Amino acid sequence: MARRRRALVAAVAMAGLLLAGAPGAAEEWGAIEPGVTTTDQVRARYGAPSKETRGKADGYDTLQWVYEDARAPGGIQKMTVEYGLLTPQGFKPTLVRVLRLEPKPRVFGRITVVQAWGVPDGDTKQNETEVFFYKTGLIVNFDKEGEQATLLTFTPPQPDTPPAAAPKR
Q1: Is the residue at 160 inside a domain?
Q2: pTM of the model
Q3: Spatial distance between the Cα atoms of 141 and 110, rounded to a whole number of angstroms
Q4: pLDDT per position as a tens digit, 86-97
């Protein structure tokens, strides 16, 4: 009974988070918006991570925070936040580059995803599972049955058209 009550509370909390965001605002979840939110803002909202890893990407220092189990937000098994974003103004080491959510079962069903973020801008199959793409920066991976989201990846918004190739010399 207590287990059911906890699952219901988590589902209600998750529904509240989903309804709080405007449809199409896929680039933001739980007050984390890639390209906007900083390490200080994430720490203020979620506290210290379960695990912190420093790395390098293209010669830049990067940082990854993982929130698991009790440190993860309600309804989420694991939340991974990656920092370090190359912007037109230069490299910003404290800006969120990517937010990954691994939800608990039955939290983000296919219908919930479409109700929250709308019809995807594209979809494909990857490793025999369906994947939704949104130009606003959201990628959703589903289970083999195509009914439950197994991974939500938030990135900065994607351009409508790819940048022009550099002229050949």
Answers
A1: no
A2: 0.79
A3: 10
A4: 999 999 999 999
